[in-house]
Design goal:
single chain; mainly beta; Nucleoside Triphosphate Pyrophosphohydrolase; five-stranded mixed beta sheet; two-stranded antiparallel sheet; 1 helix; 7 strands
Amino acid sequence: MTIVATLCYIVKNGKVLLIRKKKGFGAGKYNGVGGKVESSETIEEAAIREVKEEVGVLPRKIERAGLVEFYSKTDIPDWIVYIFICRKFEGVPRSSDEAE
C-alpha cells in the first residue's frame, strides 16, 4: 500500500511557517503543513485543503517544489509526498485541533 500526501511550506518575508503536529503521523514533530490526498482530489487541491484545515489561511498560489518517496521493507506503508511552497495567501495563521 502506498500513501500519497502533501507538504506545503508557507513563506512570508523570508520566514517559513512550521507547525507542531498534535496528532496522527508525525505527532509532536515540527514540519510544514500537510496530509493525505483524498481519492476525489488532486494533489494541489489536497495541499490547499490541508493548509486551510490546519492553519486557517487560504493559499492563493502554490508552487511544486519537490517530491519525496519513503519506502519500507516492513509492513509500514510506503509514502509519496508532494512538496509545495506557498508565498501568496489570505488570512492569519492560527492553531487548530491538528496543529499549533
